[in-house]
Design brief:
By secondary structure, the protein is an alpha/beta fold. The protein has helices at about 15-25, 50-55, 85-95, 120-130, 135-150, 160-165, 180-185, 190-195, 230-235, 255-265, 275-280, and strands spanning about 40-45, 50, 75-80, 105-110, 130-135, 200-205, 210-215, 240, 245, 250-255, 285, 295, 300, 310-320, 320-325, 360, 365. It has a 5-stranded mixed sheet, covered by helices on one side. The protein has a 5-stranded mixed sheet with strand order 6-7-11-13-12. A 3-stranded antiparallel sheet has the order 9-8-10. It contains 11 helices and 17 strands. The longest helix is centred in the first third of the chain and has 15 residues, at about 15-25. It starts with 12 loop residues before the first helix and ends with a strand.
Length: about 375
C-alpha cells in the first residue's frame, strides 16, 4: 500500500507549476549592474570620442580660381615645378632668373611642402613674393592634418595619435605621425595655413595668357574645367578604364589624351560649337609626375623635374617658353620613379650644402 503523501498542496498540477516558475523568477538574483556604464572610448584632456576622431573630414579644396593682374601686366610669368621644401634651391633659381618682384609674377604648380628640409620656409617665401599657386597633394595632406589638429585632434598627445594610427582610428589613411606632413602642419603659423588653404586646384590665367591653365596633377580630358574633381586634379597622372588615376601603369598619360582632344577640336579640324573651356584653355602647366621627369610638349608642360630626388628645380617662362633650372641634392633618399615617399635625408647630411640667404615674410628683407 502506497504511503500517504506528506504534501498538503491541494492545487491543480497547472497552478502548482505556475507558482514554481514565479518563485524561480523571484529567487534568481538580478544581473550585476555597474555603477559606471561603459562609455565610448575617448582620448585627450577633453575626452574626444574615438568615433568623432575617425569621422572627421577637412573642408573641401577650392576647385578653380581665376586670377587677374592687380595693376600692370608683368613682364614675365615664371612657372616653377614641385619645390618640396627645397628653399635653398628656390632662392637659387629666383636669383638665376634675376627675379624682380615688381616686374615678374611667379606661379607655383603645387607641392611646396614635404620631403625637403624647409617646407615652412618655402610657404613663407611664396607668400613674401606674392606667388600664385595651386594646391598639390602634399599641400593638401598638410592642410587636412592642420584642420584635424585644430579640431578633434587638438587635445590628443602624439602617443595617442600614434596609437590611433596603429589601430586605424585616424580619419585618413595617409595620416602618418612619423611623416613630414604632421610636423609641418604643427609648425605653420595661422597666416601660413590660411594662405595654403586658399589655394585652388585649377588656376586659369588672365589675358594675354588666357589659353594657359595651371594644375598640380592633371585634368580629365572628357570633362570641362568646372566639372573636374578637385581631388583628382591634385593626383592624376593617367586616365584608366575607370577614370583618372595616380598610377602610371594603368591606361594612358592624361596629357597624351589631352593633346588628342585638342587636336580634334582645333579650328582646322572643322569642329564647331566649342564650349568656353575648349575655346580658351588648351595649354596646361602641371607638376606631380617626377617619374616622367620634365615633360615639354606643345600643349602641356610638366615641370616636376625630380627636385627633391637629386634632379633639378625647373622654371618655365612666358613669354618665350624658356626653361631655367638649378641642380638639387637628393633630400628624400629615393628616385621618385615609384611614387613612394621615403624618409628624407637631413639637410646637414648633404655634402657641400652651403647656407644660402634666407628670406622671411616678417622681416621682408634678406638675412644671413
Amino acid at each position: 500500500m502506497q504511503a500517504p503523501s506528506s504534501n498538503n498542496d491541494t492545487r491543480s498540477p497547472d497552478s502548482a507549476a505556475q507558482q514554481q516558475r514565479q518563485q524561480a523568477v523571484v529567487d534568481t538574483p538580478p544581473p550585476s549592474v555597474s555603477p559606471h556604464p561603459q562609455q565610448p572610448k575617448a582620448y585627450g584632456r577633453l575626452k574626444v570620442r574615438a568615433a568623432d576622431v575617425k569621422s572627421f573630414r577637412a573642408g573641401p579644396p577650392t576647385l578653380l580660381e581665376k586670377k587677374e593682374f592687380s595693376a600692370k601686366e608683368p613682364k614675365r610669368l615664371i612657372f616653377i615645378g614641385d619645390i618640396h621644401g627645397s628653399l635653398k634651391e628656390l632662392n637659387l633659381l629666383l636669383c638665376k632668373l634675376k627675379f624682380k618682384r615688381d616686374e615678374d609674377q611667379v606661379v607655383l604648380v603645387g607641392d611646396l611642402v614635404a620631403k625637403g628640409p624647409e617646407s615652412v620656409g618655402v610657404v613663407r617665401r611664396a607668400r613674401q613674393i606674392n606667388a600664385w599657386c595651386v594646391r598639390g597633394n602634399h599641400d593638401d595632406r598638410v592642410i587636412r592634418w592642420r584642420e584635424f589638429l585644430d579640431g578633434p585632434g587638438a587635445t590628443l598627445s602624439e602617443s595617442e595619435l600614434k596609437s590611433l594610427e596603429k589601430s586605424g582610428g585616424l580619419p585618413y589613411d595617409d595620416f602618418k605621425v612619423g611623416k613630414d606632413h604632421y610636423q609641418i602642419a604643427r609648425d605653420l603659423s595661422p597666416d601660413d595655413i590660411t594662405w595654403l588653404k586658399s589655394l585652388p586646384t585649377i588656376l586659369p590665367l588672365p589675358l594675354p595668357y588666357s589659353e594657359w591653365v595651371v594644375v598640380h596633377g592633371g585634368l580629365d580630358p572628357s570633362k570641362p574645367l568646372l566639372k573636374q574633381s578637385a581631388e583628382d586634379v591634385m593626383v592624376t597622372r593617367n586616365i584608366g578604364s575607370s577614370g583618372p588615376t595616380s598610377s602610371r601603369d594603368e591606361g594612358k598619360a592624361w596629357f597624351e589624351l589631352w593633346a588628342d582632344k585638342m587636336k580634334g577640336l582645333s579650328p582646322s579640324s572643322g569642329a564647331k560649337d566649342l564650349n568656353f573651356d575648349e575655346m580658351h584653355y588648351n595649354k596646361i602647366i602641371y607638376g606631380h609626375d617626377a617619374g616622367r621627369n620634365l615633360q615639354l610638349h606643345p600643349l602641356t608642360k610638366g615641370l616636376d623635374s625630380r627636385c627633391v630626388y637629386g634632379g633639378q628645380l625647373t622654371a618655365f617662362v612666358l613669354p618665350g617658353e624658356k626653361t631655367v633650372s638649378v641642380t638639387c641634392p637628393n633630400y628624400d633618399g629615393g628616385s621618385g620613379s615609384d611614387g613612394k615617399d621615403r624618409r628624407r635625408r637631413r639637410r646637414d647630411s648633404v655634402p657641400n650644402a652651403k647656407a644660402e640667404p634666407m628670406y622671411t615674410v616678417e622681416q621682408g628683407r634678406e638675412r644671413q
